[in-house]
Amino acid sequence: MAYYGLRYPYVGKYDTANDTYTAPTLSARAIAFTVTPNYAEGSLAADDDANSEYDKEFSDADVTLGTDTIPDAWREDMFGNDVDSQSGEVASNKDDNANYVGVGVIAPEKIRGVKSWVAVFLPLVKFTEPGDDFETKGSSITYKTPSIAGKAKCDESGNWRYRKRFTSEAEAKAYILGKFGVTGNTIPATGN
After folding, report:
1. Cβ contact 99:80 at 8 Å
2. Contact partners, residue 35, CB within 8 Å, separation at least 6
3. Predicted model pTM
4. What is the rounded distance in angstroms from the CA atom of residue 77 to the CA atom of residue 11?
């Protein structure tokens, strides 16, 4: 496999009471997406055999999402920030509680010259609010972009990641939106 891009970071808040998602928002553009599964493991030594028994089980996954911005809608859904839609002020409070969100992205892939679109959906991710990193322009322009880190866990069925390959980008987008419970493939981007 050879991934050569990343698009459409969809995020939707998970409603634990109803096992549903709010309408996903697509208001940032993807820069990077890293998912690293973590495993609990243990072994038993018996009768001079160092590995008489060995087990390895999924525990969670580290998730990092880099985007060109963190939209206010994401700040409210992900971190529990108070967003005043009239004034545009976002307040980060010491008592804010991060929420579980679903995250979906699409990555173009080429295998032996054949292009496809891989849709990846993580059903339950809890992100940590990032710090700020500003720098004066000086004699050259350096762009600073946000990166948010979190942990993914399993859904009710025990799945922590869903992935499917498609022959068109539209099919991959419809698949991601379907995971959020949306029919059709048009979701308007919400601004900051």
Report:
1. yes
2. 61, 62, 63, 120, 122, 152, 161
3. 0.86
4. 9
